[in-house]
Amino acid sequence: MGELVDFFIRSRNFILFVLLEVLCFYFIINTSNYWSATFFNTSNRYAAQVLAWSNAANQYASLRQVNADLALENQQLNARLTKLLQSKPAAPKEYQADSAFADRFKFVVAKVVNNTTQFANNYITIDKGTDDGIRPGMGVISPTGVVGKVKVCNQHFSVITSILHSEFLVSSKLVKAGEIGSAKWDGVDPHLIKLDAIPRYKPVSKGDSVVTSEFNSTFPPGILVGRVRSVGVQPNQTFHDLTLNLATNFSNLSFVYVVENRLQAEQDQLEKQVENEK
InterPro entries given for it (predicted)? Predict the structure, then answer.
């Protein structure tokens, strides 16, 4: 307390000067219309700027929660859309999928905590594991398209084999042509992927959509893989040389959806039984 008193005593001349300046400023503003209006306009302008900065800071601070809420909402919409598509498959009118088939895909939202794109074989780490029902072999998608497949898990984390992996194949279908091929990354550009085994006689155009086909048990059919970027012909081959723009942008991947096919084990068991009997 004594030090504070000493400070005021030492600085009494400066403090008196500041108080007199404030008093003069007050009288100038209150006795002159011009200076009063100028002060009012200037103070309002700076107050508005500070308020704008404050609002921007608050909005930025809440972006994490906003993104999490949007990811949860997308999870629910994906589940509803997939159920609707599964209940109305492209089949004869007399065919009706049962409820178990329509409900076979379940989605779990997860946050990406690590992601690589610069290697020949890339992996992604998410913050969900076996405690959340995740297990190896499950497919992973983003809000825009295919991401990869779960490789290993522990209680709280999972590592995903990215579609940007030299050995990762996705059974894919050209929407317009109805032709099925395999999408595979060539290890060059993380924004592009190749689509193989599409016959040359099939009409393909730039911009055509490529989605997951019905012939895999990992992903629901109709998930976007990419769109045709260029159309060529493989030398001495009867297939198109197709390059796609990947639907998923791996450079800013924040949230993903792990896809559980509830009937996959049943399907795999039956197919394995048939293979063993051959």
Answer: Cell/Rod_1, Cell/Rod_MreC_2, MreC, MreC_beta-barrel_core
Among 244, 115, 122, 250, which residue's Cα sits nearest to residue 183? 244
Per-residue pLDDT reduced to its tens digit, 186-197: 999 999 999 999
Q: Where are the domains of the chain?
A: 2-60, 170-251
- Pull the structure tokens for residue 23: 């008093």
CA-CA distance, 261 to 132, in Å (whole number)? 15
Q: Which secondary structure element, helix H or strand E, spans residue 200, and what is its range?
A: none
CA distances from 114 to 44, 119, 130 (A): 46, 14, 18
Q: What CATH number should be reported for the domain whose range is 170-251?
A: 2.40.10.350
Distances (CA, A) of 67 to 59, 125, 255, 258, 268: 12, 18, 8, 17, 36
CB neighbours of residue 12 within 10 Å: 10
Which structure tokens are listed for 262? 């509830």
pLDDT at 95 over 70: no
User: What does pTM read for this prediction?
Assistant: 0.68
Question: What is d(CA 211, CA 180) in angstroms, rounded to the nearest whole number?
Answer: 9
